[in-house]
Every structure is written in structure tokens, then in C-alpha cells.
Amino acid sequence: MNCFKLFGLILAGTALTACADLDLAATPGDKSVDRGINSHHLSTLIAGVWVDPNGCDHWIIDDGVEGYLSERMTPDGRPVCSGVAPPNTAVGPFKAGSSIPDPVRASNFR
């Protein structure tokens, strides 16, 4: 039985390693295109704001299966801490722009 488990783990690891080098974008290394189930350019998604525990803003996008997060910065590179919401809260239409439903309800994060 252990031999079968070991073989299965090796097979799964080999399959996942092969997928890591797969790049279907027109430009190799282009991270601005979602190549998943509903392939589209990420600029078509609508961002909301998540406020971290320190009170600073982060852009957040929920694509249904995967999500995107980046720190919100001023033009000179300082973090934006607008006070738009209490810490650890997401606001805005960050789930808009994708037809894939999110299996986890937002009420789990309050």
C-alpha cells in the first residue's frame, strides 16, 4: 500500500511541475491576463479596498476562484491610509466583473 502512495505522490508532483512552466499568454511572463476558466485581461475586473490591521488600504479583486491584492500607494510611493472602513474590512464592488460565484460567503470574514 505504501508503494502505491509513494508512486501517486511522485506522479502528482511530476504533473504539477509540468504545469508550472505552462505559459499561455501572448507575451511570455505576462501577468496581466487571467488564463483560467473565464480568461480575460485583469483590467476588466473591478477593484475594491481592503483595510489592513494598521488602517492602510489595499486594492482587492475577487475573481471567484482566485483573488488579487496589492498595496494602495500615493504617486510618491507612500501607503494610502484613507480610513474608508474599519481595519480588516473590505469595501466596494471587488466581486464584480466575474461570472464565477464565490463559494465562501462574505459573512465568514466579518
Write out key terms for the chains shown.
4-stranded antiparallel sheet; disordered C terminus; two-stranded antiparallel sheet; 6 strands; 110 residues; alpha+beta; elongated
Mean pLDDT: 75
- Widest sheet: strand ordering: 5-4-3-6
Main beta sheet, described?
A: 4 strands, antiparallel
The SSE string, one letter per element, is HEEEEEE
Shape: elongated
**What is the share of helical residues?**
10-25%
SS field, number of helical segments: 1
What radius of gyration results from the CA coordinates? 19 Å
Number of strands: 6
Strand content: 15-25%
Cα end-to-end separation: 44 Å
Q: Multimeric state of these chains?
A: single chain
Describe what you observe in this structure:
This protein has one helix at 2-20, and strands at residues 33-34, 40-41, 48-51, 57-62, 67-71, 89-91. A 4-stranded antiparallel β-sheet has the order 5-4-3-6, with no helix packed on it. Strands 1-2 form a two-stranded antiparallel ribbon. The chain is of the alpha+beta class and 110 residues long. Helix content is 17%, strand content 20%.
